[in-house]
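User: What would this chain look like folded?
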Amino acid sequence: MTTRHDVRPSRETAALATAWLLALALASAATAACSSSSPAPATPGDAASETSIPDVGATTDALADAADAAFDATLADAPTDAADARSDADASADAADAIADTAAAPIRCTQAEFDKPFDATGGDFTAYTGVNIVFPTVAAPTQYTNHCAKVKVGTSVTFVGSFSKHPLQPSGGDTPSPIPATSTDTTTGYAGFTVTTPGTFGYQCAYHPTMMFGAIQVVP
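Assistant: Here's the prediction, encoded as structure tokens.
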């Protein structure tokens, strides 16, 4: 005769298993509901955190970096700006020096040359209403004729020659000078002016100042 054992769980065991399964189901349902109704809190450093919470520290660092870059750029530009300022100051000083040098240049005619009876080199033209000062029309330099001339106020003075090959420029004497700076040839081949103020006014060729120079002394 075979003995049959009953392996079915007891009523108490079945009740405990049912309760455990029910608790597990409720927990799962609660978790799903929470997930669908509100997002899980973001962890610092993940995408949600970076989107929802401004990174104040990063913004502050960016502003500091920008300020540092601007300061560095200012320091880098400072030598250039200083050099530009020195260059501008030097240019202004050079221009002032050029004006001063022109005014301070010595008159290269003696009083004896102004006072002597006129000849090809100049002299006293006070008895005349005009005087011509002639210079080359070719490139080779030659001293002006009548380069040391004394004239009266109201006298017409005319420079005749090629101003492109021998630019005329004031050089030394009283200021302002009536002698015009001229470097362009005229259609007539000469440039003239009338002296209206007493004084001594020097001039020279800008290209050949040691070989072509002179002065006009104007007396009342």
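The longest helix spans residues 56-104. If you want, I can go into more detail on any region.
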